[in-house]
Amino acid sequence: MSTTQTNKIEILKSATSKINEVDFGNLSFGSVFTDHLFECDFKNGEWQKPVIKPYAPFLLDPSSRVFHYGQAIFEGMKAYKDANDDVWLFRPDENYNRFNKSALRMAMPEVPEEIFMNGLNQLLQLDEAWIKKGKGNAMYIRPFMIATGTGVIANPSHDYKFMIILSPVTSYYSGDVKVLIAEHFSRAANGGIGAAKAAGNYAAQFYPTNLANQAGFQQVIWTDDATHTKLEEAGTMNVFFRINDTLFTAPVSERILDGVTRKTLIELAKSENIAVEIRPVLVSELVEAAKNGSLKEIFGAGTAAVVSPISGFSYQDVYYDLPKIEKSVAIQLKDKLTNIQNKLEEDTFGWTVKI
Amino acid sequence: MSTTQTNKIEILKSATSKINEVDFGNLSFGSVFTDHLFECDFKNGEWQKPVIKPYAPFLLDPSSRVFHYGQAIFEGMKAYKDANDDVWLFRPDENYNRFNKSALRMAMPEVPEEIFMNGLNQLLQLDEAWIKKGKGNAMYIRPFMIATGTGVIANPSHDYKFMIILSPVTSYYSGDVKVLIAEHFSRAANGGIGAAKAAGNYAAQFYPTNLANQAGFQQVIWTDDATHTKLEEAGTMNVFFRINDTLFTAPVSERILDGVTRKTLIELAKSENIAVEIRPVLVSELVEAAKNGSLKEIFGAGTAAVVSPISGFSYQDVYYDLPKIEKSVAIQLKDKLTNIQNKLEEDTFGWTVKI
Ligand SMILES: Cc1ncc(COP(=O)(O)O)c(C=O)c1O
Ligand SMILES: Cc1ncc(COP(=O)(O)O)c(C=O)c1O
Fold it and tell me: Of the candidates B70, B189, B191, which has its C-beta nearest A70's C-beta?
């Protein structure tokens, strides 16, 4: 990745570091941030001078459009440190491209590649000591953009702020993951913004997810909102279903996020000679497969959760427990993926990019 | 409206007023704010001490959940000053109740009535000089709540900020309003958040609305996302269709905002002996009525736009121009409504509430 022109970024270093206050063995996902952040404002139709500066709160007008009309998008990616202390990104171009697709759908300006990638590289270099080695450890990277223009009128902002913040993490989910198949609530509309990583998509899921949590389920698997018959994705993960020896996953659509982990697992599975079928998966098929014993595994796939095995699902008040599996495809693919990400295995795909 | 216990609100007055810098004859909707705002934070499971203070930017952490997961809701209401300089709200209980319905759907805490209503009253009293008399003039009131808790993990915030800001306005739309009937894009899903005044619902409409604007239409009329055959509502207005002498409007649903203006116009129409049918209105019916000449009027209804006559619509690339009407029901209802709001006519409904 090019780090030319990085001299364009103004760098204001923090006088002190918070790193010694952090218990890296005991991180709660997304709650600790490094010493610096990257920021670039969009004003008068142009991206302004980018800056790296100490992580700190910033001022916003009460009428900022992000508060009132929800123009806000983000990405989630990770950086990994290998045994030689080199730092690697995983398919960053995918996140960059998806970010700008989200921007387009939310009527926000695209962020130039140079600003996104140089910002990311420089910031990671500056806070490199915060990236810990070892499988499971990673630096979670959160690029995001918000509408900072003022005025309570429902039309697109003229001003925006693009930022990158960094949070050292271990893994996202722990323990048993039981899921509820959505029968009434939905996360996305046909012709809506489900395929964008738009902030509003997430808050929309909180209430139904709370209800699921109260009923003893960690996650909801969303279905299509029109018929609730097709399995779509989970809150922050795409989902795979293994029936006999074939993996099934829904095609991406304007309702479903085009996950980087999903597409990576599809390629990895193919390279491991695991059959993958990308087609709409019906709830009725899942129930049938659970009943006749052909349903072997369900797992979620996402940057934060990596590969997250699901132990059972509930539909129409019936709970279907999945068998304890000997040779789990989820674990096989997770190992393969994390080995590549952590540079423990050769990356024959060209997915890892050194910063 | 009770103003007891207002002594609980801490009031920090602005040393100077910006009022003399404002050209009240030339206001752009929602762009000018009064000297003060009302603020109340939610922390540790409790609403904290409310405060009225000078309108000013405030600090937020870059990881605040409103930026990343879109937990943000709002209301839109108006205050009017009558000939005797008394200030009146219009059905404020409706906005208060809807605000808390939105809060529930977005997994945010409900705001107690005392905080909402006393805050509103005290703030309006303090900035009363900003409320101008005369039909068309109003104080637009924007209560809103955002998630201020930190951390990039997709679950509900623990901390929130509730604010009220005030913006003197005249009217929202001006000129000819032509609308496009949505054939692909949608604003809300079945089982989604369309009925909530959630920030994310608005940004979702910007891109398709931009496309409509570029094609020469001011607004989009959304249709149901599953079939695109039923007429739902516009970006910030519910819609009414007059076919012969009957008004039709869609029933509210989990996809459609339960507009205060809509329900008020329905009651006003009934009191004026205008037939109103509340039932799903099909795009095909509208086209048919336009073709056979029975479609007399279409108008939008909302707090900002009041009653906004629509001059024609486009569907499947055919533009249907509406007839210039002699005795417009839209204008009849608008006059009735604004007369009541501005206290030019007796309010036999008990809708107006003096502050
Ligand atoms: C809604 C949704 N689906 C799926 C994913 C998984 O995508 P990725 O693998 O790119 O992280 C995410 C998280 O990024 C998400 O937010
Ligand atoms: C989506 C939507 N529909 C309808 C309306 C009209 O509602 P009300 O009459 O309560 O202002 C609004 C504006 O408030 C709105 O945002």
Answer: B70
Residue B76 alpha carbon to ligand 2 centre in Å: 8
Cβ proximity of A343 and A86 under 8 Å: yes
Alpha-carbon torsion angle A196, A198, A201, A206, nearest 10? 140
Strands A312-315 and A178-181: parallel
- Residue B104 one-letter amino acid: L
Q: Do B191 and A190 lie within an 8 Å CB cutoff? A: no
Q: What is the pLDDT of residue A4?
A: 41
Residues of chain A under the 70 pLDDT cut: 1-7, 172-174
CA distance A39 to B153: 21
Model pLDDT for residues B171-195, shown as the tens digit of each residue: 765 678 999 999 999 999 999 999 9
Q: Is A205 in the pocket of ligand 1 (CB under 6 A)?
A: no
Query: Is B72 close to A74, i.e. CB distance below 8 A?
Result: no
Q: Are B108 and B156 in contact (CB under 8 A)?
A: yes
Interface test with B, best of A35, A127, A152 (most B CBs within 10 A): A152
Cβ of A338 less than 6 Å from ligand 1? no
State the angle between helix axes of B92-105 and B260-271 in degrees (0 to 180), rounded to the nearest 10: 140
DSSP state letter for A66 = H
- Tell me the pLDDT tens digit for each residue of A38-93: 999 999 999 999 999 999 999 999 999 999 999 999 999 999 999 999 999 999 99
CA of B267 relative to ligand 2 center, distance in Å = 17
Residue from A77, A239, A252, A303 to probe ligand 1 pocket by mutation (most atoms less than 8 Å from CB):
A303
Share of chain A above pLDDT 70, in %: 97
pLDDT given at position A306: 94
Query: Which of these, A107, A65, A100, lies nearest to B209 by C-alpha position?
Result: A107
Cα–ligand 1 centroid distance for A238 (angstroms): 6
Q: Does the CB atom of residue A238 touch ligand 1 within 6 A?
A: yes
φ, ψ dihedrals at B285, nearest 5°: -65, -40
**Mean pLDDT, range B50-70, rounded to an integer:** 98
Which of A66, A147, A206 has its CB closest to that of B107? A206
Integer-rounded Cα Rg, in Å, for chain B is 21
Residues B218-268: tens digit of each pLDDT: 999 999 999 999 999 999 999 999 999 999 999 999 999 999 999 999 999
How far is Cα B10 from Cα A222, in angstroms, rounded to an integer? Answer: 45
**What would the mean pLDDT of B277-286 be, rounded to a whole number?**
98
**DSSP-derived 3-state class of residue A5:** coil
Which of A104, A204, A206 lies closest to B192 in CB terms? A204
- How do beta strands A51-54 and A77-81 pair? unpaired
Position A112: which residue type?
Answer: P
Segment B199-221 mean pLDDT = 98
Complex confidence, ipTM: 0.96
Domains with residue ranges and CATH for chain B: 3-169 (3.30.470.10), 178-341 (3.20.10.10)
H helices present in chain B, as ranges: 65-69, 92-105, 113-126, 199-214, 260-271, 283-292, 329-341
CA of B225 to the centre of ligand 2 (A): 19
